[in-house]
Amino acid sequence: MRHSAIYVGVLLFATGGVGCSRIQPTNPTLKTTETQDPEDWLDATKQAYRSGDVEVRVTGARFGQPRVRDVRSGEQPPAGNLLIVYFEIKNNSRTKKNSHLSWAKADGHFVARLQDEKSNGYARHAFIYCGEVDGVKTTDREIQPGGTDRDLVAFDVPIAKVTTLRLSLPGMQIGQQGSVQFKIPVGMVERK
Question: Is 80 left (phi over 0), alpha (psi -120 to 50) or beta?
Fold first, then answer.
């Protein structure tokens, strides 16, 4: 356990993390196991992902600085200008709880990835020890039957000339296999 704390501290320092956030050091390009045809991706302005009892909907996106609350030391300075995408996760089951591991803090191999229509990938910002980001809890939790939860994911701001972003979220964070894939028109992203 002692070594884990040291390792995380080194990652925060080495990757330019601010407070409880840090840049995800993995390659942001999409994996080959994901659907590459943009026509197969869900339009974030019109469609929700549905599988079994789980439903995921993009509720908004914005460019700006997230408000971050560290679970250890309270309010932190903004993490810088980022693209932040917000979600609602709904458990449509009447009898079973659904585990939800926040995409905001996910680390390792099963992380969200963002790419534009020109195949540029964007680094993800993980909020490892944050309690809240923009009022969304980043702790792992269970969604009660018929209940909803909110989540978010943050990336470096895309280049100016792109029109469409492709966001791939690991399904295992919501108890599903494969990926949850949305295409997000840049026009739906608020500028603040």
Answer: left
Query: Who contacts 95 (Cβ-Cβ below 8 Å, separation ≥6)?
Result: 145
Cα dihedral sign, 178-180-186-192: negative
From the list 115, 148, 88, 128, the residue with the least C-alpha distance to 27 is 115
Q: Structure tokens of 16?
A: 């330019």
Q: What is the pLDDT of residues 36-94, one digit of tens each?
A: 566 789 999 999 999 889 999 999 999 988 887 776 666 666 667 899 999 999 999 99
Helix (H, G, I), strand (E, B) or coil at 10: helix
Closest Cα partner for 17 from 74, 68, 87? 68
With 0-12 CB in 10 A as exposed, 13-18 as middle and 19+ as buried, what is 109? exposed
pLDDT in tens, 111-154: 889 999 999 999 988 776 677 788 777 777 889 999 999 989 98
What count of other Cβ atoms lies within 10 Å of the Cβ of residue 72?
10
Residues contacting residue 24 through CB under 8 Å, at least 6 positions apart? 107, 111, 123, 124, 125, 126
Average pLDDT over the chain, rounded to an integer: 78
Q: 161-180: per-residue pLDDT in tens? A: 999 999 999 888 887 888 89
Cα–Cα distance list, 118 to 32, 95, 160 (Å): 16, 44, 12
